[in-house]
UniProtKB/TrEMBL annotation:
GO terms for molecular function: metal ion binding. This is Protein SCO1/2. The keyword Disulfide bond applies. Keywords: Copper, Disulfide bond, Metal-binding. PANTHER family: ELECTRON TRANSPORT PROTIN SCO1/SENC FAMILY MEMBER, LINALOOL DEHYDRATASE_ISOMERASE DOMAIN-CONTAINING PROTEIN. Pfam families: SCO1-SenC. Cu cation binds at residues 102, 106, 192. The keyword Zinc does not apply. SUPFAM superfamilies: Thioredoxin-like. Belongs to the SCO1/2 family. CDD domains: SCO. Disulfide bonds join 102-106. Residues 64-229 form the Thioredoxin domain.
Length: 230
């Protein structure tokens, strides 16, 4: 009888331990989920050069106001409309560089841009901007067809063409999308990169992401939501 009582006590203790472990495990899962759904830091860092060394600046300060900004530009989208910084006034936007006949990385990048479009399609604060690095062949009509094929929402996602000198200068000198640090480039060197950049409402670069990596795209979406709260 005494042995039976002891066994019952042991069984009850084991059940309580298992319940406690399961509860703790669930709490850890919830905590991890909360981390995924929120930003990594209180404020996203700022970037101003090709090494993408983060600069920790407080938004709204004089230092932030004087920090590197994407300058004005004038390009043409898939509707034949002029796209410039007024298009993105008071907007957060994600930008990349592609070309329509790219057989390699571009289709996957476009799929991930489409994923971002769908995530924020009802959010007027967020836009997308894709620059063609082959503007001589990616005319307005070609971009229009590409947009239709990939279900681009015209007022949400701008596919742009224009002067090659302007597009390449923007990519290399302003967005710093290439990682060939210290290697001089000119117009004869093809601009090709998988990087996505996150730009805030004040035209500052706030993040760089691998446009081919699903985890990186998930982080980009999280960071956009964090940026909206600044």
């Amino acid at each position: 009888m005494k042995l039976l009582i002891e066994m019952k006590k042991y069984s009850l203790l084991l059940i309580l331990v298992l319940i406690s472990f399961t509860s703790c495990k669930n709490e850890v899962k919830k905590e991890n989920l909360a981390i995924v759904e929120t930003s990594r830091v209180a404020h996203l860092p700022y970037y101003d050069e090709e090494s993408f060394t983060p600069k920790w600046i407080t938004p709204g300060t004089s230092e932030e106001k004087d920090f590197h900004k994407i300058p004005d530009f004038e390009l043409t989208n898939q509707l034949g409309e002029i796209v410039n910084q007024k298009t993105f006034e008071n907007k957060i936007y994600v930008t990349d560089f592609f070309f329509t006949i790219c057989p390699g990385i571009c289709p996957q990048m476009t799929d991930h841009m489409h994923q971002i479009q769908e995530e924020f399609k009802n959010d007027d604060d967020v836009l997308l901007l894709s620059h063609s690095v082959m503007p001589s062949t990616d005319s307005v009509s070609v971009l229009r067809e590409y947009a239709n094929t990939h279900e681009v929402i015209d007022d949400k996602w701008h596919l742009v063409t224009g002067e090659k000198t302007e597009i390449y200068s923007l990519g290399r000198d302003q967005y710093f999308v290439e990682n060939d640090m210290g290697v001089p480039k000119d117009l004869n060197d093809f601009l090709h990169t998988e990087n996505f950049l996150l730009i805030d409402k004040n035209k500052h670069i706030r993040g760089i992401y691998n446009g081919l990596n699903r985890a990186s795209i998930a982080q980009l979406i999280t960071d956009i939501k964090a940026l909206k709260l600044e």
